[in-house]
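In response to reviewer comment 3 from the previous cycle, which asked for concrete evidence that the modeling workflow produces usable outputs, we include below a single protein chain processed end to end. The sequence was submitted unchanged, and the resulting structure tokens are shown without manual editing.
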Amino acid sequence: MRKKELDVSRRNFLKWSAAAAVLSGGLTACGSSGGEDTIVAGGGSPQDKPDALLKAGKWVTVPCPDCATYRCVNRAYVVDGIPVRQKTDDSHPYSYDYPQFRPCIKGRSMRWSVLSPARLKYPMKRVSWKPGGSDFHPELRGRDEWVRITWAEALQHIVSECNRINSEYMALGSGTSHPYYDANYAASYGINNAIPSPILNLAYTADMEPRFLNALGIGTLPIFGQNSTGAWPCASTHMVGDRIEATKSDRITVAENSNLIVQWGVNPSWTKFGSQQTYRAAKERGCKVYNVGPWLAPGSAAFVDEWIPCRPGTDTALLLAIAYVAISEGLIDEDWVNAHCVGYDHLHMPLRDSNNFPILDGNGVSVIEPSGSWGPGNALTGEHHRYWQENFKDYVLGTYDGVPKTPAWASAICGAPVNKIISLAKDMALIKPMAVISGDAPARVYHGGSYAQAFFAIGMLCGKGNIGVPGGRLDDPGLLHFGSYQYFSRNDRFISGWYLGLLHEQLGDTLRSPAFPVAPAAPVTTPATTAGDRPRNPKGFISYGAIRQPWATLYGNYQANEYYGIGFAEVWDAILTGEHHDPGHTRYNMDDTELLPGHGKKKVDIRAILKIDITNCVNQVVNTNKAVQAMRSPKVEFIAATDFYMTSTLRYADIILPCISFWEHEGHYSFLNPEIMIGNPERVIAPMFECRADTDVDAELCKIAGVDPKFAAPYTEKQAMFNALANAYVFKTDGTTKEPLVKFTANDIYDLGVDADTSPTSSLLTEGRITYQEFKEKGLYQVRMTEKTKQNEGWLKDLVENGTPLTANYTTRFTGTETGKVELYCMKLKRYHDLVYSFGTTHLDPLPKYQADTAHGYEATQALNAEYPLQCYSVHPYHRIHSQRSDNSSVVELCDDIATINVLDAQRYGISNGDWVLIESEAGKILRRASVVSTIMPGVMQTTEGATARYNYGTSGFEDESIDIGGNANTLTYSLLCGEGHQAYNSVVVKISRWTGTPPLPQYKWEPDLPRMASE
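The workflow returned the following structure tokens.
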């Protein structure tokens, strides 16, 4: 390793490295002389001062930043600005109603990652890239060396290249002669939007869009879709009214009351760390637990009574067989189902919406047959439904299609034994109360929408005795500690459990409880330049980040006059082929009364790519091999990206910028778990080297472009942190009334240097359960669960108990359903897919029907002489959050990335436990070590997602760049456009063979993935 690559610009980093090595046996960095540094806080040798170090600092509490669904308590011991140790929650003794929130290995290893030798230190430019578009050598991306440049140079390159590329590739020339001009689009929506931007925004994190381009009127080409949730949102939104926690019992209520728990595609010990406490308590009380999925994870095995094996992508067939048993054996209360659902039988098909207007079919024609038409009449109105035969009950029983969805029918598809399907069905129908919990993974398949439909349909069939009952639960996603989402319900409670009303304060967004408005001076109150007033992207719908972008469509608010950009799965093809599908060949207007021409397929000419955030699309979006080809495309003249490390995405950029880590931001707070707020209003460490916050980078770009930097960051980080604390509230022990959480003094506000009302009558100074100094010292506030604050409701309770329609009094997030009931037959869903997303994507029927995936699913492996005879799916690892933590050799040594296969498949292909194996799909090839087990289904194998893709890393025997020795699961995935842009991570078929070439080194022995610097 070269001395130049290890030189650092901050002495604190050297001090931390030596201190950490002494105190905890951690990483050791080299000093500028190339030898081991011996400097510690206070001077002298670290061997002489471990005790002194532990007495000289303070513990700083911070939330764990790694889990997408939960936050735990991390504490760093900081001495002279150097974190030398780390521990977890010890703020109080543990009890079940007042637990300690302890992080898993991902959180406990944060110190090594924040202060890793692999951290990027300063802006860099690829040696062979030159601005101007004529001498940029794209074929050397990923192979080139780097040279250090200044921030001023880097930012100027970004602004200059974006201006140049926009000028060269957006100019209309004479009249409308631009090659990608869309006349139909321009006629309806204006010339500015008629030509897609040549600048692709590759960020998929909310609020991380280059706003300087929006302010200049240039804009970017956005991307949209889903990474985590799969096909859940659209299907369940139209069918149930929203996708999260239709019926809700929190962790204590489940542990104390549930008599049956069904885990569907859930691996709690790896991805929902901490929920084992709930399972353990429920099991000790005698609760029965099922686990459904292709693999029985070790963490689930500790609590599960029955494992129901189910092949990837076939869950819908299994759910339909459960419905068959429940219906055919008379185990459900049909009157109850018909009272709260539409579409169960032919007499209860949906005819009119909640406003009494006729429901329209996919052709815009009323589903109500003309008077006198043949067919059974609706039980209430006597009107006839055009598609009365397509009711849920008759489909399941096979009355009209001739295919009863029996356990034997499902067993042949999903692989579960017939007797196990029957026992599961009977238990789900008869044991009350029941908690049915699904993960997101079963919907991350090509036909994932059908699974979401079937999940809620079966939940409603078994709903009597579960909805609104303590211990009853029907929800996605996963366990989430039985309550960690903080979305508002119509009662101004948090759906997840309304213990802490913690309000998420994005930079520039002001979200607060209307019952407790904060009344300080601007900008804490809504300023003139709020999120809604910032310059919107003139080239795409909803500025400020693509992950937020599709929510409008996913929740039924598709705007037909907007351009949504490129679906995740098509982004690499769009770069390489110059075209992509744009929602809607044909569509109806907003009133569903007039048929209008749709957007159709759209041409694009992508010449630049920006990623001003810490996402890693090359590694984490499907089809990594194609991503590399796209990043090396000769059409792409400029790529700029930011991150902590040399990720798979940064490796193929031209300009890379180092950003700060979570611990280097001006304060942190957690709002995901409703029982606890974790935060620290100060940095844990000062920004290292030349690293900057993403929002600061965007603000600097605004300055250079001549734009007000407040468009990028209306608030400073300190102001945003203060706004979050000032707007947090907590429910009182009665479970209904609430009060502000934090009370400030005028001196607190002065010391923070923020804008706020400090008059004597200010609510900031007069109201609050704890003082700011108390919160600052302890770093968290936690409430104890009481009978009043336990939750077992969910919004379906109002429908069941009071007949309240699902469309009534909901915020914009809760759109309800067309009829106001749960729609087992959902014409709006079909109309939505047919007319809004009829562009080569997957089909979704009004009923939850099993759709065979003959190209990428189980059926593909059964073809005669199938080239790819195994299904392969990926799971979240327990030692990383996606691709983060790959840099940590201490963790990777304990938690290697492996390929799990069944013992029968291992025998068939001559593979032994621990062998290196080559896994191949149509999309690519990876190497992994094999783990041979009996707890994964034959014909199925799995990999852990997020491993860093590495090609031709210099290891002997790997000169062939077609093999990814890093073992990234997405090297095997395909560019499949499906649903509303969700990614079919788990629709993959592969072949496997024992690797006989030179094996790579174990990952923990790899050198840090540092950029190769050019020789001076």
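The two ends are 16 Å apart (CA to CA). We consider this sufficient to address the reviewer's concern, and the full set will be provided in the supplementary archive.
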